[in-house]
């Protein structure tokens, strides 16, 4: 298999990018061939063609891109090839961009090491999302990679978050227990957390437990979360937030102008972000 | 991408196979190229060559095979191709074998649907392991596939299982809460659960909550679990157990005789299983 080697991107560099671009926007590259403009389907690799156009049109407005691996796996080998091309394109053309593999992996120790190597070493993503259910030895293999971040699912933005994550363990919600416990693990400075925007007041308590870690925030916009509310409670001295938007940006138009339409949507969010950053 | 269509395998057929073969053994196909016999590395696809030899030598002793996707993803596109070849080989040559994609996936609703289609429709696995942390709407898309099973992580066999899974929620451990809650979900008859063999007495209480579901049991042997103890508490009227062994079988020898050595190890377990089945 091919392996790509680039300089890793540290969180300090991410913070610098946020201040340079006045943006903490992450764009989710969740490509569904039923939703991309019809003319792209004639391309040799429509998924990559779509991503390339979106990235080229929005890279100055976003600091991070997050392909969700489910969308690529769904297209089999061709899908994995599109994912490889996308991360390579980002690393070669926009090395200042922070990259997130939204893979939600996690397995017993040795097996997690394999996932970590796949996404960090072979594909050269800066970070990966990981599920916490199997505990410390399923997450620590990811944390061992220096200058790579492990984004642990804490409080997700879907309805099912209330099935287990908000249940109380010894008087404390499971998601808080996950954040607290993980802060005691080796190399915990490499942790970030997924925290959905749907309940902004939760960010206050999360910041008490994890004042320094970056939070990756889905659910602003489409799922009803408010950017201002999230920032009110979630910002820290490093900004510390990556706000993700996927469908709201990449499917803004299904016409020939899809990339420009995506840029306009990204611009709207970036403008809001600039206003917030200018005030702190 | 290619799609394969075969008759789905129902759990009734699985039960029938167990009685026919006097075995409830599942063999984990976790292929590590550093551990396979050196002569296989000259093959065009060493991973598939290894799997094919193991399957041909053990198919009469096992009722199920379980490739862990981490091991295939680690080899990039070639690894995914080996996985496709392996499941196709099983479905074409041993349609009586039950197949498990050990993928530990799980995401928000629409995204889980994509994972379900990938593993159930395109790759045509009979079942997939799924992580419960994101709750109902992350699991139900898998359960919608009739005659396909969703194997929810409940109590895993690793040390980290004690970080969150055995914590108490309203007086009850998280893993029991996961089993109980999931029994109320739509199409819950399509559920199985992962329950590690490391604490056999746990099976008693689990059988109170989930008397009918199959349990996929890792951790017998290498990780210290006892087959007899697990069966004492875990068997139900349909047998209801799939005991997994991976490394203990497939890496029994790294020499030219690796497949025969694997068959001998599988035979040892099958003999123990036959004794147990003959008594009930």
Automatic annotation (TrEMBL), chains A, B:
CDD domains: OMP_decarboxylase_like. GO terms for molecular function: orotidine-5'-phosphate decarboxylase activity. It catalyses: orotidine 5'-phosphate + H(+) = UMP + CO2. It is an enzyme of class 4 (lyase). Residues 24-262 form the Orotidine 5'-phosphate decarboxylase domain. The keyword Methyltransferase does not apply. Pathway: Pyrimidine metabolism; UMP biosynthesis via de novo pathway; UMP from orotate: step 2/2. Its EC number is 4.1.1.23. Keywords: Decarboxylase, Lyase, Pyrimidine biosynthesis. Pfam families: OMPdecase (PF00215). Belongs to the OMP decarboxylase family. Type 2 subfamily. This is Orotidine-5'-phosphate decarboxylase. It comes from Mesonia algae.
